[in-house]
From TrEMBL:
The lineage of its organism: Eukaryota, Viridiplantae, Streptophyta, Embryophyta, Tracheophyta. Residues 1-34 are annotated as: Disordered. Transmembrane segments: none annotated. This is S35-RNase. Keywords: Glycoprotein, Signal. One of its GO terms (molecular function) is ribonuclease T2 activity.
């Protein structure tokens, strides 16, 4: 299966379509609904 179709749990970030995980979180992308 393609990586974007698999359910994975890794840290606090979702899996990216490129297969790489982000190293830094941009605060402007964080919502208050979490």
């Amino acid at each position: 299966d393609p990586p974007d179709k698999l359910f994975t749990v890794h840290g606090l970030w979702p899996s990216n379509s490129t297969g790489r995980d982000p190293k830094y979180c941009n605060p402007s992308n964080v919502t208050s609904h979490m």
